[in-house]
Amino acid sequence: MGEAVTGGCLCGAVRFRFDGPPIAQRACWCRDCQYLAAGNATVNMTIRRAGFSCSGEVASYESAADSGTPMRRSFCPTCGTPLFSEALSRPEVMVLRVGALDDPELGGPTGFIWTASAPRWGHVDSNLANHEGQPPALPK
């Protein structure tokens, strides 16, 4: 991923871009993510905040994740598209929702997390790196 990655919301009111390679690309089956993804896992790309920019108004919702970590989840207040989330304890990184990327092919997951929370019908690829709950912390 050598060039800038861009994305935005369904209605186009919010646009973002970032430079640099992602730290991780995973699908998350925690119960919070199931709410955000209409019953499915969210597919996410974790990036360093340095090199990230966003235009347009975003709304956010703060709550504790299944791990207990305080999180801020941001979305477009006009169309409701989930855009990104941030662990308040790790301001140097953020998680982008792959569905908001202009090219979602860039965000294929290399693993699944919180697989113990997935419903029986939920897809988890056993050939990838998977964790039943919270995985080890990512590098900064």
What's the alpha carbon Rg, rounded to whole Å? 14 Å
Percent of sequence in beta strands:
35-45%
Overall shape: globular
Q: What CATH architecture label applies?
A: Beta Complex
Number of strands: 11
Q: Note the gap between the termini.
A: 19 Å
Major sheet size, sense and barrel closure: 8 strands, mixed
Count of domain modules: 1
**Residue share in helix:** under 10%
| Poorly predicted residue ranges | none
- Mean model confidence by pLDDT: 91
**CATH class group:** Mainly Beta
- The computed structural class is mainly beta
How is the CATH topology named?
Metal Binding Protein, Guanine Nucleotide Exchange Factor, Chain A
- Please tally the helical runs, counting DSSP H or I stretches of 4 or more residues: 1
User: Would you list the SSEs in sequence order as H and E?
Assistant: EEEHEEEEEEEE
If strands are numbered along the chain, what order do they take across the biggest sheet?
6-7-8-9-4-3-10-11
3D structure, described in words:
By secondary structure, this protein is mainly beta. It has a single domain (5-117), classed as Metal Binding Protein, Guanine Nucleotide Exchange Factor, Chain A (Beta Complex), CATH 2.170.150. It contains one helix and eleven strands. The model has no long low-confidence stretch (mean pLDDT 91).
Could you give a quick summary of the protein structure above?
This protein has one helix spanning 31-36; strands at 5-8, 15-18, 24-28, 42-48, 52-55, 59-64, 70-75, 82-87, 93-97, 111-113, 129-130. It is mainly beta and 140 residues long. It has a single domain (5-117), classed as Metal Binding Protein, Guanine Nucleotide Exchange Factor, Chain A.
